[in-house]
Amino acid sequence: MNFAVLLAGGKGERLRNELEKPFVTILDRPLFSYPLELFEKETSIDYIVLVINPEKEEIYRNYINEHNLSKILTIIEGGKTRHSSSKNALSFLKDVVQDDDYIIFHDVARAFLHADDLKDFLLELKNHLALSMASPLKDTIVQIKEEAIEQYLNRDELKIIETPQAFKAKPLLEAYKKAKNSDYSDNTKVFLEAGHKIDLFFSKHPNIKITTPDDLELFKAYLGG
Ligand code: CTP
Ligand code: MG
């Protein structure tokens, strides 16, 4: 079975909006509704664990009821960091999942994720212990020193890591038990540190993370708003 963990526990400080990031309005809908509906509609997803700011729980519950979403297994309180929000979801899932299930983390901030890419990603996932969505770099990348170019990096050896990031449940739970640091910027790092391989899946459509006000305008334009 496939358990999605949708991470919406952040406030979106870099967005500098009066609303927290999951609640900014895009074409009359809150941002969080885009990934939530996407995962609800994807037939290969069995359950969704939604990680949120608990002060906003009622808004989510109302949305889920009004839109008859049927895959929400539970709503979990987010932590101070993305890493602690992930851990909170896993401490619930450890008593629910079977060893061979997959746990699929996705940042609600990546509200652009295309339905075809999610479907293809989940089809490909069956052949892997762990799989992360990724993008190639298009620009020339340099390393700098004292604000000037020091050297050119080999673009073919550099990739952008995105979400979804998916893992077989048993090794993932073991990796989190062994995790040495108090914070990790994403889920693949914990898994790599435990000695496992993470394969990459390159999406066909844009999958940007909404971080700054510019990203929000881009998302609106993309949807034709
Ligand atoms: N996230 C989370 N819990 C946190 C922090 C982040 O679940 N304590 C989630 C966010 O909701 C987001 C994803 O992790 O979907 C990626 O984080 P980011 O884009 O950095 O979002 P925010 O942390 O909300 O934004 P900012 O860093 O600008 O405050
Ligand atoms: Mg953040």
Question: Short description, anyone?
Answer:
The protein is of the alpha/beta class. It has seven helices and eleven strands.
Distance between the termini: 36 Å
Q: List unreliable stretches of 5+ residues.
A: none
Q: Based on helices, strands and strand pairing, what is the structural class? A: alpha/beta
Ligand roster: cytidine-5'-triphosphate, magnesium ion
Number of strands: 11
CATH class descriptor: Alpha Beta
- Rounded to an integer in angstroms, the radius of gyration calculated over CA atoms is 18 Å
What is the count of distinct domains?
1
CATH domain topology: Spore Coat Polysaccharide Biosynthesis Protein SpsA, Chain A
CATH superfamily: Spore Coat Polysaccharide Biosynthesis Protein SpsA, Chain A
Molecular structure report:
There is one protein chain. By secondary structure, the protein is of the alpha/beta class. The protein has a single domain (2-223), classed as Spore Coat Polysaccharide Biosynthesis Protein SpsA, Chain A, CATH 3.90.550.10. It has helices at 33-41, 57-66, 82-93, 115-125, 169-178, 187-193, 213-222; strands spanning 2-8, 25-26, 29-30, 47-52, 72-77, 102-107, 130-136, 142-145, 148-152, 159-168, 199-202. Strand 4 (47-52), helix 2 and strand 5 form a beta-alpha-beta unit. The chain is globular and about 55 Å long. Bound molecules: cytidine-5'-triphosphate and magnesium ion. The site of cytidine-5'-triphosphate has 21 residues, from strand 1 and helix 3.
